[in-house]
Amino acid sequence: MSIATETSGKRLFIPALRHVYAGLHDSAETLLRIVAGVALFTHGLGKIGDPFGAAGMVEGLGFYPGTFWSPLLSFTEFFGGILIAIGLLTRPAAFAAMIVLLVTVWFHWVTQGQGYSGAEKSILWSAVFFFFVIRGGNRHSVDAKIGREF
Question: Which of 81, 50, 79, 49 is nearest to 66 (CA)?
């Protein structure tokens, strides 16, 4: 379904904005994907230099052995962020990122006892990555350019 079809049946308060919304639909989704990917990449940047550095932290969460999970966390954030930003293997990269963020929800809400206020950012980021698990990278992605999606 095209964006024109999606917006044509809707009654807008300001109908003149229909063309603005239609024209920016894909660009807004692409911007969200790039920002989410760059944010994840930036978060992983500090970990990739020492991929085993978080071994104690992940073991503290119950993930043993930390020497396995710590590099996996580092690679998911660093390389997953790059993949999401450029839109290559978008769905599996977003799925991995979503799982990491759901673990942080558990960590902040339950383990740390911070409740919603401690887990709020992780919940929002989980939802963003869930969006890309379902939607993929859109037409402005490497996935679309090579004509293959996961």
Answer: 50
Q: pLDDT tens across 7-52, in order? A: 567 899 999 999 999 999 999 999 999 999 999 999 999 999 999 9
CA atoms within 13 A on the CB side of 123: 9
* Cβ neighbour number for residue 54 with a 10 Å cutoff: 21
Domain boundaries, the chain: 35-141
The pTM of the full predicted model, rounded to 2 decimals, is: 0.90
Residues 6+ apart with CB under 8 A from 91: 132, 133, 136, 149, 150
- What are the φ/ψ torsions at residue 114 (nearest 5 degrees)? -85, -10
